[in-house]
Design a protein that fits this description.
Elements (H helix, E strand, L loop, with lengths): L2 H29 L4 H27 L6 H19 L4 H29 L3 H36 L9
Length: 168
Amino acid sequence: MTYEEHFIDWVRDAHAMEKQAESMLEKMAARLEHYPDLKARIEQHIDETREQQQLVQSVIDRYDTSRSVIKDAAGKLSAFGQAVGGMMTEDEVVKGAISGNVFENFEIANYTALIAAAEQLNDSESVSIFTRIREQEQAMADWTANHLGDVTKQFLIRSSTPGVEAKK
C-alpha cells in the first residue's frame, strides 16, 4: 500500500471511531441522573464529537473516497454492547468514567498517528484538522482524569446512603 492508501484507511477508521464515540457518549449521558457535572461535560463533548465527524469527513471528501459504512456500523454495534454491559453493573458511573478516559486516550493516539501520516503526505490541511481534534480529545481526557476521583467519591457516598440511587 502507498502512504496515501494507509492514510485514507486510517482516516476512515477515525470516522468510525467518532461514530462509536458519539453513540457511547449519548447512551451514557442519557442514563446519568445524579452526576450533573459529568453529564454536562459529556453533552459538551457530544457536540465536539459531531463536529469532529464532519471534519474527518471533510478529509475523506478531499481525497474523493467514501467513509466505511461497515466500520461505522461495527463501531455503533460495539458502543451499544459497551452501553448494555455497563447498565448491568452496580457501579456503572465509575466504570463508565474510567472507560471514557481510556477511550479518549485511544482517540489521542489515533490522531497523533494521523498527524504524522498527514505530515508525511505534506497535507497541512489534514494536519491542522487532526491537531484541532486531538486538542479537544486531550481536553476531554484531562477533564475525565481530573474528575474521576470526584465521581468515584460521589458514587461511594451515594451507594452507602440507604434509599439513595448511586448507579447512575
